[in-house]
Amino acid sequence: MTLLSAARRAALLVAVEGAALILLGTGYAVAALVGEPYDRAATLLEAGFALVAGVLVLLVARGLWRTAGWSRAPAVVVQLLALPVGVGLVQGRVWYAAVPVLLLAGTVLYQFATPEARRAFADTD
Prior knowledge:
By secondary structure, the chain is mainly α. It contains 5 helices and no strands.
């Protein structure tokens, strides 16, 4: 017997991704306001995008936790978008960032593919 269902494990992992995006956006905002970026407006725009994306991903994670049928598709799309980002990081030899991105995306997609998660979301559709 598992402690958490596959849908809940996926929800927790997606929440980690959302929190990471919020931390990234906060870091960009601080760097833009305190530092001397080449283009302050672009850096602030990137920070805003990361913050908004993080909040939206957290909302999707909340929907996954409740096994809301609407939340599965956006969560899968986020993972499918994360895969080429991770591959790009590998190609750029940024392993310390590539490994967590690829592991999280792969693990969430695996959780969605389990029979347990498919049954949980089939009951809500």
